[in-house]
Design goal:
9% helix, Chondroitinase Ac, Chain A, domain 3, 44% strand, mainly beta, 7-stranded antiparallel beta sheet, 5-stranded antiparallel beta sheet
């Protein structure tokens, strides 16, 4: 029964991804070119990194980003998005919303905005529950086309972005090519032990 429900949820998310981004707002570059860094999936239920202290409300930050680039920060959520020079061809007002609750998830607007150069999302992991597990988890950015699937520490994602982990700064980063909702996702990974074998938990 649960597997049928999950399949239905994944199908709904895939439909939303295809329909929701079928007419993106372009930044002057048109539609994003094929990007081999994307992990395109047909809608999978994945774990979302959780905050140690849930956000009691949405936190919003906005800015006008021009051709020189810029950044937006939401300190309460440990979130920064940096736009490189040339990300957009003309000034555009962008908005980031840290979603209330425990999920490390964000709504980025205008929905469907495509970039010439990819912005970088940085997440402070010291505000999350994964700090003690960083050597045994694989983190990624996950595109969440339907925010209603962000429930109980999971979400249905249809794209994954490889993340870089900075252990000294307790921070993870990943790039995106277009706007919508994204979450920091995790799955069990492993690490190389002294015997040069991969250990897993």
């Amino acid at each position: 029964m649960r597997s049928k429900a999950l399949r239905a949820l994944a199908a709904t998310a895939l439909f939303a991804a295809v329909g929701g981004c079928s007419d993106p707002v372009t930044s002057g570059a048109g539609r994003a070119p094929a990007d081999p860094a994307y992990g395109l999936v047909s809608g999978i239920l994945t774990s979302v990194v959780q905050r140690t202290l849930p956000l009691s409300q949405n936190y919003v930050a906005s800015a006008t980003i021009g051709t020189a680039g810029g950044s937006i920060r939401i300190p309460e959520a440990g979130f920064t998005i940096t736009f490189p020079a040339g990300a957009v061809s003309a000034p555009v007002v962008v908005k980031a919303t840290a979603l209330a609750g425990s999920n490390v998830a964000y709504r980025l607007e205008p929905h469907g905005l495509v970039f010439n150069q990819q912005p970088v999302i940085a997440q402070d992991l010291s505000l999350t529950g994964v700090v003690s597990q960083l050597l045994t988890l694989q983190l990624a950015g996950g595109y969440v086309p339907d925010e209603s699937t962000l429930q109980n520490g999971t979400a249905v994602v249809t794209e994954t972005r490889p993340a870089t982990l900075d252990l000294l700064r307790l921070r993870t980063t990943f790039t995106i090519a277009h706007f919508s909702a994204y979450a920091v996702t995790s799955k069990k990974g492993g690490y190389m032990g002294a015997s040069n074998t991969r250990a897993r938990n």
